[in-house]
Structures are given as C-alpha cells and as structure tokens.
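Can anyone check this?
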Amino acid sequence: MFHLFKRKKKIPEASPLQDKVVNGIVVKVTAFQFKWASFMQRSSERFSFRTKKYITAFVALLASLYSLYIIASSIIQKPKKGYSISTIHVPAYTTKTGDEKLSNNHLIPEKEYNKIIRFHQYMDSLNQTTKGKKIADSILQKRPGLMDSTLQLKKLYELQQTLKK
C-alpha cells in the first residue's frame, strides 16, 4: 500500500560522450589491474612456500602493530579540543543600516533639481530639429542611461519635497 505514494527515482541520462569517456577509463583501469595482478603473480611464484608464509606473517604483524599504535595513542594522548567557545567579534558597521547618514545635506538641493529640469528642456529642444536630434542621439549613445538617471533624480527630489511637507 505504501509503495503507491513512493516517488520514483529519476535516473539522469548520460550523454554518449560521457559514456565513451567512462568506458575508456574503466577499460584502462581494468587493464592496469590485470597487468599488476599478473606481475605480482609472476613475482610471487618464485618464492617458496616458507617465504610466502613469512611475508604473510610480516604483513600481518605490521598491520597489528599499526592498529596497536592507533589504539595506544588514542588512550595515552590528552584529548584535543575540537571546538572552543569564544566571543564573536562583529565589525562596527554591520549593525548600521546606512539611514543614519541620510541627512538634509545628502538630499538633492533645489539648484541641482533646476539643473536637471534645464537639461531635460535642452534635450527636448534638441529633439525639435533634425540637426539637434543627431546631437541628442550622439549624447544618448555616449551615455545610454543618462535620461533614466535624471528621471530617477527628478522623482527622488519630488519625493523629498512631499516628505518635507
């Protein structure tokens, strides 16, 4: 009953190039393993039964000694502090939002607003003639976001004026 609501696992489809690369790697690794195994087989065939027994005992002894070393070092050594509790140092500016710096001197003054208005009027007057339109187009090509920026400044000034009231 519960298998009705079980989600089926999606098997990602591999590309043919990935399959070729993976198959090539698998073939090379398998060939290396086969060569290594046949080399080791040939090398160990020269040993007598007694020598093989001594080699096996030596490897087992090394593994046992290494295991004992790990066990003894974990018992003898003092435990290392993995984690320690300390105070968190927070930079001073992270708790500030930036609103503290907004004061009347950072807002758009009326002189700047008048310059923006005059610039808009100038651009509008340029668009009245064909020669002026070329000049306006060249200005806008050199500075593509200029008109958008001035409109945003104009809106910001108007918002500033409504908030003052």
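Reply from J.R.: I decoded it. The longest helix spans residues 16-45.
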